[in-house]
Amino acid sequence: MTNSANGFRVTRTPADTAGAPTLLLIHGFLDDASIWDGLVDCLAGEAGVVRYDLPGFGTRSASVDDACLVTLESLATEAADIIARIDGPIIVVGQSLGTQVAELVAAQHPDRVRGLVLLTPVPLGGTQLPDEVVAPFRALGGDHAAQRRLRAELSPHLSEEQLDRLTGIGAPVARDVTAHYVDVWNTGISDAPATSAYRGPVTIIRGGADGFVTEQLVDTISPRFDQPDVKVIDKGGHWVHAEYPGTVATLILDFIDAIEEVAK
Question: pLDDT tens digits for 164-194?
């Protein structure tokens, strides 16, 4: 565990094998770095891991004023500062909101980023949902019951224990923070290119039971990349990495193997 250049906590889990790539994990809306615990365990040291809380979440939940100023670009700059402190090859992994940040930082640092993994992705140009649709999402901050209902709807196969854990992660987030972040992921970046600026290897993983990132939505995202590998975990929901960490870990390790095979 170390601190970033900006003073927040960054958790580093080294690989057991010298030269193995490091995964930079960027969590999504209502989550924090602990959402990745199961995935990190399932990776079993076959890759290094770096993870951290986005402003306004987890250990940074008290930073309400700072969180309400973030943009996708500022989040990508923060991720880039972390990348600068990682030695060796890097795979950037983002989930939901985190996929927007992951794509931006990967495109800005193609010399460092060997691959990009997008879990239940949302478009870089935003979801562009109308106000009446996103209003309930904006009001989720501090509302334990509403957050639990949302997670159950978007990941219908979560166990009661998993629901309790995930709801506990998001419950402390302030309402001002949830409102701002909804605007961030819904609006996206105004000049999102039709073709992604990141031209390296990409794997997209979605859940077949995800009520938010549907097959139709992923079909609008995947053509932006160069021959992405799209995987579906049938019973997975929006938080597929928390529901099926072993399956997601295997898919990521297979992706790493494929990248390394091409590089030989």
Answer: 999 999 999 999 999 999 999 999 999 899 9
230 contacts 206 by C-beta, under 8 angstroms: yes
- In tens, the pLDDT along 231-244 reads 999 999 999 999 99
- What type of residue is 228? P
Structure letter (DSSP) for residue 185 = H
The residue behind tokens 């562009």 is 128
* 148-169: pLDDT as tens digits: 999 999 999 999 999 999 999 9
Is 0.85 surpassed by the pTM of this model? yes
Amino acid letter, residue 119 = L
What is the spatial distance between Cα 140 and Cα 30, in angstroms, rounded to a whole number? Answer: 9
CA distances from residue 61 to 17, 36, 126, 163 in whole angstroms, order as listed: 34, 18, 24, 20
Q: Which CATH code fits 2-263?
A: 3.40.50.1820
